[in-house]
Amino acid sequence: MEAQSQSVTLIGVPIEEGSGRRGAGMGPTALRIAGVDKALIDLGHDVIDAGDINVVPARDLPNHSRAHNLRTVGAYTRALEAATYDAAKSGRFPLILGGDHSLSMGSVSGMARYAAEEGRPLFVLWLDAHSDFNSPETSPSGNIHGMPVAFFCGLAELAEILPKDRPLVDPKKVFQLGIRSVDASERQEIRKHGVNVFDMRWIDEQGVAGIMRQILETVEKANGLLHVSFDVDFLDPDFAPGVGTTVPGGATFREAHLIMEMLSDSGLVSSLDLVELNPFLDDRGKSARIMVEMTASLFGRRIFDRPTRAA
């Protein structure tokens, strides 16, 4: 299937305060250096780079002993929620360059607002080693990048970062793929609220194609919008070492490409996060280049389009 040309807005989010370590703030620059814009332009897409979001800490938010750097993360959440919503509302595809995974509090919330106005349900495909369903009460670390899914589902109100009556995502419309590190309390909350989790054992036994067909059929039948949030640690660290939260046993290079190609074929994806890239931990830009290749697959690049790379 030939991919349709899309209007894409790149939004850089150099946030690292949600992760508890430094380096992810360099992710947007690394993705640009790796050529994310050029890859999409070469595929015939209209690309605008809106630059990086820059914020000052939100003074109206409290300091929170169980949610570190809440004022800074909250400020990014507000700014990105608005930027994502504005891009989608203007008919463009928001492509978020991160930045740690706390940024999804803003990007998914912005898409939830847009979807609600369109009268369509929002589904989320969470490609990650972690379920990120903690709250300040359950988090072992207090790092907010472990809380975004619970936040945009309305189950981790850290403070009034966004309006309490904002559109939320139904946990049953969240599909988590590649999970292999879940806290005990998260496991209980995930089961309680009906999040759809396909861990690595499920992938090993069933294969990614069958799982993806099930997810895409569900979204299509509901006439839904689909937000994809791609964490570098979804991939096995042998392929993508540039992340501060490595968990062995992740998806292979080929499995990830197949997922992105199936997403492209579906035509259902409305927005994308690329998160947790830490160039300081990378091997000569390897992880950044892989994330760009994955993005290109989502936007229509096929196997026979890929140039041979010198060793």
Description:
It is a single chain. With about 300 residues, the chain is α/β, with parallel strands linked by helices. The protein has a single domain, classed as 3-Layer(aba) Sandwich (Arginase, Chain A), CATH 3.40.800. The protein is built from 10 helices and 8 strands. It has an 8-stranded parallel β-sheet with strand order 2-1-3-8-7-4-5-6, with helices on both faces. β5, α6 and β6 form a beta-alpha-beta unit. α8 packs parallel to α9 and α9 packs parallel to α10. The protein is globular. The mean pLDDT is about 95.
Topology:
Layout: E1 7-13, H1 27-33, H2 36-42, E2 46-52, H3 70-89, E3 93-98, H4 104-118, E4 122-127, H5 148-152, E5 174-179, H6 184-193, E6 196-199, H7 200-206, H8 208-221, E7 225-231, H9 253-266, E8 269-275, H10 286-298
Parallel strand pairs: 1-2, 1-3, 3-8, 4-5, 4-7, 5-6, 7-8
Helix pairs in contact: 3-4, 8-9, 9-10
**Approximate shape:** globular
Tally of helical segments: 10
Structural class: alpha/beta
**DSSP E strands, number:** 8
Task: Tell me which CATH architecture applies here.
Answer: 3-Layer(aba) Sandwich
Residue windows where pLDDT falls under 50 for at least 5 positions: none
What is the CA-atom radius of gyration, in angstroms? 18 Å
Strand content: 15-25%
Number of domains: 1
Q: How would you characterize the largest beta sheet?
A: 8 strands, parallel
CATH topology: Arginase, Chain A
H-E string: EHHEHEHEHEHEHHEHEH
Mean pLDDT: 95
Distance between the termini: 31 Å
